[in-house]
Amino acid sequence: MYLVTVDPSLGVVAAPRAEEDRDAPTVAALEGCGFQWHAGVQAYLLSTLEAHERRNAAVDVARMLRYGYQHTVCMS
Are 3 and 42 in contact (CB under 8 A)? Predict the structure, then answer.
């Protein structure tokens, strides 16, 4: 399960619920989209986008995680 959200200071956030959600194919896909793991937040962050691009990117990554990698996704 992943929580996907937009944070004003962090950018697009994709946070796994548990360590086992960080399987190799999912990690490769997130990193391929430009996300980087942030150990302090325990989430993948995409902070390179302009503010107006972030919501669409969050929706896109949520769809990818849900339909491409079969994760349950919660968006906020």
Answer: no
- In this predicted model, what pLDDT tens digit does every residue of 1-59 receive, in sequence order? 999 999 999 999 999 999 999 999 999 999 999 999 999 999 999 999 999 999 999 99
Q: How many angstroms from the chain centroid is the CA of residue 9?
A: 15
- Look up residue 64 and give its amino acid: M
- Contact criterion met (CB below 8 Å) for 51 and 38: no
**DSSP code, position 23:** -
**Which token pair is 2?**
């992943």
SS3 content of the chain, % helix, strand, coil (to 5): 40, 30, 30
Which DSSP symbol is given to 13? E
CA distance 59 to 25: 19
